[in-house]
Design brief:
single chain, alpha/beta, eight-stranded parallel β-barrel, 9 helices, about 20% strand, globular
């Protein structure tokens, strides 16, 4: 099982302070040096909550492209791109290009989007989110895998479209789809190489229900679920190093000693997870090192099993 680290692009906890690119790059390089298998970026334009000031975030793809060049070994992935932000045919072209820049280390994570305030602020449609994604995937998936598509739908068109030159991998970068609703699970079973249930996981048991629903969706699509990599986004907290912010999105964190976190990693693997991504709180180099130590303990246990 691979272990990934989420690199933050948003405003820092200290008011009005953003992570500058030098800090973003530094943390990504620390994660690579510490032995993580991958780094992941969130895709948002802003965060707004009633009665609170706007929280900013850097644009995901621009930062991703820079980090693909700055790093040498780790996989680089999006967790996940909002479909409505980018035309699917142009996104396929972008994906082939960044896969070339990274030397075949890119993972394309996609979702239907959900953040209404940012959509309103930037004039992006959020109606028919899953319907739009369904059409986008009929363009994106064949362009990634074969370099060609001819499609005309309600929301998107790509007539006699071709991606050339091709990136370093014959089948293109792997496609990860995030979502847990019935229609999203159907699209995942039809198109994805990897699946993420989107909800933050705090303990391995929280994955049980998601996994059962996904297996059922694969059966309906006549897809062997073992051909789709199961991934999980885990919120991990280190109270001794600082406070972990609570929110509706992250009601609970995986926490404890490095041994306990390593044991949880092993349990996730036993449940069939092929890739874990960790959102670390506090977001500091000390917490990164603590998580890296847990990953080393997990790998040591795995080697002995």
């Amino acid at each position: 099982m691979k272990i990934g680290f989420v690199v933050m692009l948003s405003v820092r906890a200290d008011p009005g302070r953003s992570y500058r690119y030098a800090e973003v790059r530094e943390m990504a390089l620390h994660a690579e040096a510490a032995g993580f298998d991958s780094i992941w970026l969130y895709d948002h334009l802003l965060y707004r909550s009633p009665g609170q000031p706007t929280r900013g975030i850097w644009e995901c793809w621009t930062m991703l492209s820079a980090l693909a060049e700055a790093t040498a070994r780790v996989e680089v992935g999006t967790l996940v791109l909002c479909n409505q932000f980018r035309n699917p045919a142009i996104l396929a072209k972008m994906a082939a290009t960044v896969d070339e820049v990274s030397g075949g280390r890119f993972i394309l994570g996609m979702g239907a989007g959900w953040n209404e305030p940012e959509a309103q602020a930037f004039g992006i449609p959020l109606d028919h989110r899953v319907g739009r994604l369904e059409e986008a995937l009929q363009i994106l998936a064949p362009l990634l895998r074969t370099g060609r598509v001819d499609f005309s739908g309600t929301y998107y068109q790509a007539r006699d479209c071709e991606i050339t030159p091709r990136g370093p991998r014959a089948q293109g970068p792997p496609l990860l789809i995030a979502g847990s609703g019935p229609r999203m699970l159907r699209l995942t079973a039809q198109h994805a190489d990897m699946w993420n249930p989107t909800a933050y996981l705090s303990v391995p048991e929280t994955l049980t229900g998601h996994r059962a629903k996904f297996r059922a969706a694969c059966e309906k699509a006549a897809r062997d679920p073992s051909t789709v990599g199961l991934t999980g986004l885990v919120a991990v907290g280190f109270p001794g190093l600082g406070d972990a912010p609570t929110s509706a999105a992250i009601p609970a964190y995986l926490s404890g000693s490095t041994e306990a976190i390593a044991a949880a990693m092993y349990e996730f693997e036993q449940m069939g997870v092929s890739h874990l991504m960790f959102d670390c709180a506090p977001y500091t180099r000390a917490a990164l090192e603590r998580l890296a130590e847990a990953a080393r303990l997990y790998r040591s246990r795995r080697a002995r099993a």
